[in-house]
Design a protein that fits this description.
Blueprint (H helix, E strand, L loop, with lengths): L1 H7 L3 H10 L4 E5 L3 H14 L4 E6 L3 E3 L12 H5 L11 E6 L8 H13 L5 E7 L13 E4 L5 H14 L6 H11 L4 H15 L6 H13 L5 E3 L13 H12 L3 H6 L6 E5 L6 H11 L4 E4 L1 H5 L5 H15 L3 E5 L13 H4 L3 H15 L4 E7 L7 H4 L6 E4 L5 H15 L8 H5 L6 H17 L6 H10 L3 H4 L1 H15 L1 E2 L14
The structure holds adenosine-5'-diphosphate.
Adenosine-5'-diphosphate (ADP) binds next to helix 12, helix 18 and helix 20.
Amino acid sequence: MAEAAAGQQPSWSEHLDLLIRARTPILWIRTIEEERAERLLKEAARRLGGRSLLRWDFIGGLEGLPNRGGEAARQPMQALQALDSLPPGDAAILLLTDFHRYCEDPGVARRLRNLSRQLPSRPQTLVITAARWELPGDLEECVTLLDLPLPSQQEIRTLLGAIATASSQTLPPSTLEALSQGCSGLTEQRVRQIAARALARRGRLDHDDLEEVLEEKRQAIARSELLEYCPTQATPADIGGLEVLKTWLDQRHQAFSEEARSYGLPLPRGVLLVGPQGTGKSLTARAVAHSWSMPLLRLDVGRLFSGLVGASEARTREMIQRAEAMAPCVLWIDEIDKGFAFGESGRGRGDGGTSQRVLASLLTWMAEKTSAVFVVATANGIDRLPPELLRKGRFDEIFLLELPSAGERRAILDLHLRRRRPRHTIPLEVVVGRTEGFSGAELEQTVVEAMHLAFAEQREFGENDLIQAAAQLVPLSRTAREELESLQRWAYGGRARAASVHSDAMSPGNEP
Ligand code: ADP
């Protein structure tokens, strides 16, 4: 399956083979995964007709030369001469670790320049691995830079499969798929550590290990100033109503699988959830991330858009890179409408164009994105949203979350009651009838308030307390009627899909 895609674009290993076969004299592999780079080089040496692989590090010296193990320890200059001692026709790769530290030395730099001219006439390649690309300017043109990306999902799958087999375990395909998807964005060493810990603890790998994987990722994101990692336990079962949205999300989840790739489906881009406050938009973002076993990254929209003029695009790029390194993940752009103030009193123009530039970078990325970053953007209204954002192709779909119908109110009330009283038998008909216009959040508040009423009188709460609590609460919809109606008019115009079954009249096919 993954091989089909590899057929179009050479894999990293194929690219490496090509560079070695083309007698590239000096290769600089930029990576934090030294061991993995060495293993990949070993495999390349084997594939390319049994080249020998020599290795040097400062402490251990040379390895791989018969009877000369340990030579050139603490002698970087001498290490560079290792290839000279081989017969010129012998095919070999010399791997130097940490060598960036010695490239400033005039003797080493000269020797490298000479080698870059001599090596193309011999089947020998010098490879330097380092976490950074750090060379004196005049050496740059002699050295070819090759970035080693983090392991692909296919590589992680193979690795985890091998670890499971080595511990006499057969992983069901669905577990292997979920684990390898969850581990992407981590180094091979981290994946091994997680697997080793799981095996030591329980003697096997399974779905539970995903929690630990997500924790690893959380620590990686903690350093970002625009992104916040949100731990979440919410699942779709915590959402009352919104059946259309839930079904749609379930379909999109399946589109992340390797099977969907080989079927030819594109990776899902994301969804925009629009609706009044408290209708479950944030809850949905949380439930998506948790039930898809992906980390949830919340973007601080205020900070992103209020960046200093000029620095804003760079910050956007950095944010995107961080999110992509965590892929597959859910990028939650919470209250995206807060970032824009176009049209209203000209604030959009007053910020020196920052919000437009940030928006442009964001939109370009969303349109061209090929990474498994699923964007969930939420907005309370659409008045302030720039039309470009709502255009087709940015999001896979725009959903309008309306105030819950009677059936949904019953489901939401029941859900929150069961969370507090798993075996409750409170009849809900009357309360449902008296909570028209309540949002999900207000229904939850009604339950909590009813409990307060009863608790104050030291008794168990019941239907009457719920009815009383509902009567005391003034739902936001009463004050925000106009805003709500304009939102509905917009959505009924075919711009958005209804998240619930009850208002399906404006669903797809109704575009003007
Ligand atoms: P929004 O993001 O739309 O403003 P939230 O998702 O933050 O609303 O809702 C706040 C809280 O209200 C949720 O954490 C949840 O407890 C409750 N809630 C809202 N909508 C629902 C729903 N459809 N089902 C169950 N609970 C809901």
